[in-house]
Each structure stands twice: as C-alpha cells, then as structure tokens.
Structure prediction request, 425 residues.
Amino acid sequence: MPRALTAGDREHARSLDAQDPLRDRAGEFLAAPPGLIYLDGNSLGRPPQAARRMLQAAVDEGWASDLIRAWSRGWYEAPARVGDQIAALIGAGPGEVLVCDSTSVNLFKLTLAALQHQDGRTTVVSDDLNFPSDLYILQACCRLLGGRHRLTRVPSPDGIHGDEAALRAALDEHTALLTLSHVAFKSGYLYDAPALTAAAHDAGALVLWDLSHSAGALPIALEAWGVDLAVGCTYKYLNGGPGAPAFLYVRRELQERLLSPIWGWFGQRAPFAFELDYAPAQGLARFLVGSPPILSLTALEGALQPLAAAGLEAVRRKSIDLTTYLIALADAQLAPLGFTLGSPRQAARRGSHVSLRHPDGYRITQALIEQMNVLPDFREPDNLRLGLAPLYTSFEEVWEAVDRIRRVVIEGRHLQLSAARRAVT
Ligand SMILES: *Cc1c(COP(=O)(O)O)cnc(C)c1O
Prediction:
C-alpha cells in the first residue's frame, strides 16, 4: 500500500505505524520510561534485551565462574568475532573488521598507517562538516610526521551539504588520503561514498570513511565500493552501550602493507611468547593494542542481534520514511514558528537524523528535556538534532515530538530558561 508521508493528525501517524514492517522490533529493546520520546539514538542507542542477557551471562558465567579461563573460551577472539558480525553489516568480509579502542584512536592508527604507506604524498583532504575530533586527530597526525603533511579542509557551501565537486578538485598527485564522515554529524548529509572513493583512487589516494553515523542506519558496501579504510562507533545506531568499543576496517589486500603506529602486545605476532622485540601480527590483528573491554564487547555482540535480524534494507526504507515524515510535519507546523531545515531535503543525501535550526534552538532543546519529556540533542550554533532510529522510533512518536516542540514555542516555555550551555549538550 502506498504510504502518504504528509503532515497529518495523530490518527494518520498511527496508520503509518500500522503499516510499518519493523513496528514489533521496539519490543526487542528494554523499555524506556512511559511517555518519554527518545530522539537521540544517533548519539546513544537504546539497550537491546539481548545486550543485557549476554552481559549478564558474561558476568555470571564468564567472570564469576570461568574466571581467567574465559580468555580461552571466547574472550580472546572477541574483537575479531564481533568484528566479523559488524563486517556483515557494512559490506566487508571476515577478517576485515576489528572491534577495539575508540573511534578517535582507530582513526589515529589508520591515518598514520596510511600516511606512512603513501610515502611522498603530503596532503590529507577532508571537509568542514567532519566531526571535530576527527579533524583534531588529522591535525595531530600531520604534526607527528614532522610537519611535511597538510590538512585541506574543503568548506561546505551552506553548512548542510558536502561539496563533492570541490572535494574532487582538491584531489591530486600530492593527496595521500581522503577522509570524510559518511554521514555528517550535524546536518546528516550523506556522501556518495562509492563515487568519491573512485575519484580518490583515480588520484592515487587512499580513502578512509568514518561510518559513525551510517553504520546500522543504512546499507554500506565497503568491499564493493573498493574502500581502503574505515572506522566507526558502535554506541549510536549499533546500540552497543555507553563507551562501547569502536570498529576499524582495513581492506584485505592492504593489511600486510600497513603498520600500526601503536605497538602493543595484542598486535604482536605472538603475545604470549612475551618476546622482547615487536613483530606485527599477520593480518588485521596488528591494529589491536591492549586488552579488550570484554564486558562492553559482549554487550555489543548481543546488541547487534535485532539489527542483523531486521536487515539494513528494511532499516533504510523506514529511516527515509521517518525523516521524510518529520520534515513534512516540520514544514507544516514548525516553519511558521521560525524553524528552518538544517538537513538535506533530498532523501538520498540524508542519514537518519534531521536537524531543525532555530535562533533559540538551545533553550527550546532544554525546555523539551526538562518540561516535555522529549530527548533530542543540540549542536551549535542553533541545531535541534532529532535522531530517528528505525528499530524503535515510531511515526506516532515523531508526530508527538513535533507537537511538543510546537507547544514549547507557542507557550514560550523556553523563554524562562537560561541560554548558558551545559557541559554535555
Ligand atoms: C560519534 C563520533 C565519533 C566518536 O568518537 P569516539 O572517539 O568514539 O568518542 C567519531 N567520529 C564521528 C564522525 C562521530 O560521529
């Protein structure tokens, strides 16, 4: 049945939910407090029941009973095993993904490895939509290699869309690496990753995608696209839990040619031989550093189950429907109150969150959190960021959230609040 994703009433939202093939997946997550509308799954995904089950077992059976023996009963292989499960969600093969460290640290390891491999090439190309931590890491890498490398930050024309033509023009025989966020953290702009990967390869550059805001939200085909390197975090749409370890991907043919800049024992050829000199492990394991966070890895392993069962094609279809519907409601209800769209209108160029800009965006966000039982987040200078997680966000919640935003502004609730920023926004 064709679905009309137009602004309508609550009944219309309910009819969209009734036709949603993923509507029962929300039951696979631990319940949120009644009445709470959670729109920050792009920052911290809700906990799947399976994550708690596996975490509980890791404590009760592994940690309490098996104790040190648990390292030989699945713990030691966990970074590679859970990596293979993530590989299946991002179009990579077995042995091409590891779960370890944070996204920032993995970006550091892969960037330095790539720059050292690309001897003689001295520029790193990125953009100003990228996550600041990524840009800091790139700046550090350029500096650590003796100051010969330069970071080129291609500007977005409007703070919303990436400039793919300018990025292509920035690629030349000096480019060592092109690295971008696949989906931009603020506007949700979705890059044409296969096209830009091909363009970078034409210039002889390597490509590294940060999949933090796309993994688990849309189909990704790293191998088919020919991507060299990728990193991403697991606590957003992969629902791995606060501080869950990140992942890294290295295309198989490159693995033996790259060296990690951090030579820890888990990346050594034979960690338990305790040799005094470093020799890199074969394959991807060389990018491990030290002991993996087993409890977080185990929670993540459980957390991946609902996503793997639902399939990313279905997830992407619902994600597009949810964001399209939210934009239709915002156009009808919120534009007259001073909101503008801070995300691409074209669904094919949009990830799974929508930013709505308003001069009083910060105080409106605070009013939603403190008085209206809605949890979005805020990104400077004026973005109310609404994350729509297809596994558990319903159309009725989107409708209700827009209605509560409208009421905050009409009733002037935000005007009583302070615009002084909190430490975490
Ligand atoms: C969330 C996010 C990160 C997170 O980095 P950590 O080091 O895991 O805190 C990195 N890059 C991007 C693009 C992100 O969206």
